[in-house]
Structure formats: structure tokens, C-alpha cells
Amino acid sequence: MRTLSALVILLGALPALAADTLVFGAAISITGKTAKEGEYTRDGYQFAIDRINQMGGIRVGGKTYQVALKYYDDETKPERTAQLFEKLINEDKVNLLLGPYGSSPTGTAAPIAERYRIPMVEANGAAESIFSKGYKYSFMIISPARMYLRGIIDAVRAIDPSAKTVAVLGENESFSKEVAVGAAEYARGKGMNVVYDELYPTNAQDVSALLTAIKGKRPDLILGSGHLQDSLLTVKQSRDLGVSPKAMGFSVGPSTPEFRANLGKSADYIFGGTQWTEALEYEGDDPWKTPKAFSEAFRATHPNYDTTPYQVAESAAAVIAYQRAIEKAGSIEPTKVRDALAAVDMMTYFGRIKFDARGVNVYKPMAVEQYQPDGKKYTVWPREVAEKPPVYPMPPWDKR
Amino acid sequence: MSGAEVGQIAMNALLLSGVLAVVALGFALVWGITNIVNLAHGAFIVIGAYVTFGLHDFWSMDPFLSIPISMAALFALGFLIQRALINQIIRAPLLATFLLTFGLESLIVNLLRFFFRADTRSVMTAYSGAALALGPVRVPYIRLGALGVSILLVLLLAAFLTRSRLGRAIRATGMDVDAARLTGVKVATVYAITFGIGAALAGAAGSLLSMIVPFDPNLGGGYTERAFIICVLGGLGNVVNVLAGAAAYSVVEVVVGSRLPAFSQAITFGMLVLLLAVRPQGIAGKAFS
Q1: How far B162 CA sits from the closest chain A CA (Å)?
Q2: Which among A382, B17, B144, B218 is most buried, taking Cβ atoms within 10 Å?
Q3: Exposed, middle or buried: residue B136 (CB in 10 Å: 0-12, 13-18, 19+)?
Q4: Nearest beta carbon to residue B120 from set A215, A262, A397
């Protein structure tokens, strides 16, 4: 009897729920190689969704929608990501799509969004190659790969215009390669001389060969684009080999807590590009307004996080972009939301959100963090929103 | 290319070959004597790295002092694994040994990931990053120490195999199992000890690598691959062959890496394919003698 009445209640509730709930679908890596980052992504999406519901939901014309997230684990397998996006669209009938974690899965999800004409705002795939195929339904909320190291070049040049030479070493993999190519191009455009520019194989256990060649060129600035282990290896082996440029910076690595845990004092003076930090002084038009408020609100509801990873912030920003676009469109019709997304231009706690013709947010700068000798990490760039000025030059290894 | 650069490249190759010799020796020994291509060799290396990391992290033990502990632990583990698992398939076709050791590798790596998480670790000591300067060429103390340990282990293994009764029994078993059995060698025990020694050498390699490279539970796979290439290049014949293979591999990796880093793996593997086409038996013979 109780089961029956529960069923009746459920049946009664279901159509109402379906009618007034807007569902975002995503496949995210909850297990596999990028399990941790996938968790950040999911928590970021869910955090923004909870916040919107708490504020009453999304207003569309005269109606208010509650928002929900429907996600599956893609096990960090790009081919699985594509299957799951099809399932979300065909079986779960989700209204709109949020991106997976990582460039490769995002690359397999984008054509699915395109085929079904349902927009996908993605927050965790920075490879621009995904956006060179003329897709109309995919949007990248983050700064693209080629911009990752720009902030570091700008910061160094602002303090020391005489810094003329730069060496770039990158992992031979699509995202890191775009980062390296973008950095070298940007440096050349700034009148710098790129004295070394090479890629090393994925999973390299040794970059001493590259560093030995770089040492002979005596560059002012060394930039590395790879993943955490590559950055750690490059710093360690630079110290081993006495390679002492005036500044050293990486696309990925310094923003993770493991960077200092692994390097200790060797982490000092190292620059890292990052999509976002909670120390940035942005003033936004969104539920949280500032990075600090976003971060505090997130940690208040997620006590298991010591800091707020940028993946959480960028993933939440994707939901915020949707909120704005849906309200502007006055409809949850996918094609109308798509057009409204293409026209979004707003300032948020995450930085500016605006997409170029390809759907890439080239309007938000990359921030730069630096480990300083007092043992802490500071946001040092862009200057107008930074916490502290950068410390430069980095003292030679043997004079520390 | 400047003289300083050439000198540094030569030094890098020498230092790398020392570590790779230890990485490959245990693999070669097991392959040569028991005819098992141990795909879990890299996983044993990772365990060694975590032993050193753990002892350094919790008891601040100097990483070099932890090498014997790492070797003893891995010897015991290797011995038991051979007795309990590998021995079941010692006469089975090659594919079965691949499947079993590959499965073992996955199991160990996933267990490590469960207990230590996928976080990247490094062993940092007071002397990390310090280096001896030979003119413009820098010799990091840790890598110099690693080379010293490698040389010591190579000499000890060579002496053990040629001078001791057990070592000779191991070699005899590798040459002809049936003849060895007829002369009273307990083949099952010899196999388990051999596997244990192979694992112990992997443990030593892991301890050394933990000081040199940042690592996580996935460290090992690349080293199983390198060990395989070195064995094919040098042949399984004896300790000297493995050293030659390690040296040849290191020179190629370092020299190609300094000029065409993006192609270093392609060229190394290309060389392997070429060698196999010209001399399918490797540079030297097959049996470990």
C-alpha cells in the first residue's frame, strides 16, 4: 500500500518535475587518468546549479525553471565520451550540454553536439583545434591553449624590457604543442628572439638532453609546456645541470599543490600560467561577483577542499554563461540558446566571458602565479588584478 | 655544438646508462634463465620507488641507505610471486606468461594507486640538485651516486653468477633445465630465487629512480619497455651484454634527444626494428651464461 501511494506521488510529481526542470547533460571523467580533475569539473557544475536553484532558478519569459545536472562517467576514454553524449541526448533527453574534462574528450563530444544541434559549453578543453572545424554549437569558456604562457611573457617583459631571448620546450601532444607554438609566436611578435623551440615525447623521463642544449644558448626566459611531471622534471634537471635563466615558467604544474610538495625551495621564483585564481580582483555580474566570494562560498559547502581549484571555477562559469544566455534568449530551445550564447558578453568572478566567431573565449587573459621566497604562491599578473608584483630575476641555482 | 655541450652530453649518457643497466639487469636475468618476459618488471620498480619514498618521508632515511631494504622487500615479494603464480605457467606458451605478468602489472599499479593515490612524488634530500663541476660539465651528486650503486650491483651480480655455487646452478638451469635437474639442481627453487633477484634489482632501480625523477604509480611501464629494448639490443648472453645494451640505448637516447628530441623514441625504436631485421637473435646469443 505504501509502495503504491509512493508510486502515485512519484507519478504525480514526475511530469511537473520534467516540465519545470532544465537538465544539463555531461560525460565527465570520474574514474581513469583524469579522475581528480573530473571530480573538480562535476563539483563546479553542481555548485553553480545549486546556487542558481537556491536563488529561485532560471527565469525564462514568465516561467521559472529549476536546474539539474545529469552526468555519466566517461572513464577518461574519449570514445566513451561520445557514446555517452549520444545517450544523454537520445535516451535522457537532456536540454543542454556541458563539456567533459580534457581536450580529447571535448574533441569527440563537439561533433555530437553539432549533429543534434544542441549547444555545449565546455570549460575543460583548451585545444583550439577542436574549434577550427567550423562547429556552431560548441563554446569554450576558458582561454585557449596558445594563450597559456602569454601572461608570463608579458609579466617578464614589463619588468625587464631587456629580456630578449626565450627557450621553449614542450610535450609532443596536442594541447601542449598548441601552448608551445602559441608561446613562441607571441614572443616573436613581442620582438623577442626564440633561441630554442623543441618538443619532447610524451612520458619523457629525462629532459636533460634538451636542457643541455638550452644551457648553451643562455636564454633569459625558459618556458615549458607539458604536464605536472614534466614541469617537475624540468625544474629538477635545470638545477642538476645549473641551467639558470632570469625567469622560468610553465603552463601546467605550478598551480597544483603538488608542485611545492615535490620541489621544496626549488619551486621559488617559478611562474605558472593559470586560468583563474581566487586572488584575482575581478568584479563580476554573477551570483558571487568576486573570485574570493566564489571561493569562500564553494569551500563553505565543500569542506574537503583546502583550496578552490581553477577547474571548479571554470566549470561553474560554464553554467553561469548558460544562465545568462537562457535568460536573454527567453527560451530553452537549443538553437535559440545557442544564438544567445554567441552574443554573451559579461564580466564574472571568472573574468570576461565572450566568444569569438569560432566559439572561443579569447577575451579573458591568463593569470600568472609565482612561488615567492616567503614560501607562498601569489597571483602576480595581470598587473591590475594581481595580489603582488612578480619577483625577478630568479637567482642562479648556486647562489641560493 | 660547443665542447662544453659535447662533454655534458657524454656525461649525461654515462649517468643514464648506469641506471638503465640496473633497470635492465633483473629483467634480462629472469628472461634469460626462466624464459619469462616479465611485464610486471616496471611495477616492481615502482614498488621500489615507493619503499624509498616511504622510508624517506616517514623516518627521514637517506634514500641510498634504503636501497638494501627495498631490495630485500622486493626479493621476498618476487620469490613468493614466482612460487605462487609464475611457477604455474612456467611451461605454458609465451602468451600465457605475457597475460599473467601483464595482469600482475595492472594489479600492482592499481593497488599502488589505491594506497598512494595518483599524486606525483619526489624524494628530495639536502644534496638534491648539488653537483660536482668538472670544468663546464656538471655531475649531479645523486646521479653520480646512482652510477656508483649501479656499478656495485653489476659487479656483485657478475661475481655471484660466476663464483658462487647457487649462481652457477642458476646459470646451469638457464643453459639446460633437464641437465641441471639431472645433476641435482632444484629447478623450482632456482627459478624462484632468480625471479627474486630480478625483482630485487628492480627494487634497487626504483629506489635510484625515486631520487632522479618525479614519479607516480605509472612510472614503471616506460621502464619495462626500455628494459626490453636494452635486452634485445645487447642480448641476454651475460651481464656484459646487458651493460653494452644499456650503454648503446643511452647514447642514442641522449644524442638524439639533444638534437631531435621529438623523434628520440621513434629513432630508438627504429633502431631496434632495424637491428631485429639484420640480426634477429640480437647482438649476442640468447641464453644467460
Answers
A1: 34
A2: B17
A3: middle
A4: A262
ipTM of the complex as predicted: 0.85
In a domain, B286, yes or no: no
The C-alpha of B102 sits at a distance from chain A's nearest C-alpha, in angstroms, of 18
Domain membership of residue A361 (yes or no) is no
pLDDT at residue A19 greater than cutoff 80: no
Q: Is B261 on the interface with A (CB under 8 A)?
A: yes
Give the three-class secondary structure for A99. coil
| A93 and A111 fall within a common domain | yes
Give bridge partners of residue A225 from the DSSP assignment: A170
Are A22 and A153 contained in the same domain? no
Q: Are residues A110 and A90 in the same domain?
A: yes
Q: Does B143 touch chain A (CB under 8 A)?
A: yes
CATH number of the domain at A214, please: 3.40.50.2300
Instruction: Inspect the interface and report whether the beta carbons of A210 and B261 lie closer than 8 Å.
Output: yes
Q: What is the mean pLDDT of residues B9-20?
A: 93
Q: How far is B104 from chain A (nearest CA, A)?
A: 18
> Which of chain A's residues have a Cβ under 8 Å away from the Cβ of B9?
209, 212
User: Do the domain assignments include residue A359?
Assistant: no
User: How many domains does one find in chain B?
Assistant: 1
Contact check, Cβ <8 Å, B4/A216: yes
Statement to judge: residues A17 and A97 lie in one domain: yes
Q: Across the strands, what pairs with A169?
A: A198, A224
Residue A2 has pLDDT above 60, yes or no: no
- Identify the pLDDT of residue A159: 95
The model scores a pTM over 0.90: no
Residues A237 and A286 in one domain: no
Across chain A, mean pLDDT equals: 92
Of A212, A232, A236, the CB nearest to B258: A212
Cα distance between residue A354 and residue A328, in whole Å: 14
A172 near B CB under 8 A: yes
DSSP 3-state assignment of B212?
Answer: helix
B60 is a domain residue: yes
CA dihedral B176, B179, B184, B187 (to 10 degrees): 30
Residue B178's CATH number: 1.10.3470
Q: Contacts of residue B119 in chain A, CB cutoff 8 Å? A: 258
**Cβ <8 Å between B124 and A239:** no
The interface residues of chain A toward chain B in range 219-278, judged by CB-CB distance below 8 A, are 228-229, 232-233, 236, 239-242, 258, 262-264, 266
Q: How many domains does chain A have?
A: 2
Cα–Cα distance measured from residue A89 to residue B232, given in angstroms and rounded to the nearest whole number: 51
Inter-chain contact A206–B120, Cβ cutoff 8 Å?
Answer: no
Q: How confident is the model at residue B284 (pLDDT cuts 50, 70, 90)?
A: low
Contact B129 A240 (CB under 8 A): yes
pLDDT of A123: 97
Q: Is residue B175 part of a domain?
A: yes
Domain that holds residue A95: 2-143+279-354
Contact A312, A130 (CB under 8 A): no
d(CA B98, CA B33): 16
Alpha-carbon distance of A159 to A166, in angstroms, equals 15
A243-257, B46-60, B259-273, range with the lowest pLDDT: B259-273
Q: Which three cell numbers stand for residue B280?
A: 634477429
- The reply to whether A13 and A112 lie within a common domain is yes
Co-location of A302 and A341 in the same domain: yes
Q: Which residue of B has its CA nearest to A201?
A: B262
Q: Is residue A360 one of the residues assigned to a domain? A: no
Same domain membership, residue A87 and residue A7: yes
Q: Cell 632570469, residue?
A: A246
| Domain encompassing residue B170 | 3-278
- Set of cell numbers at residue A342: 554567441
Q: Is residue B150 part of a domain?
A: yes
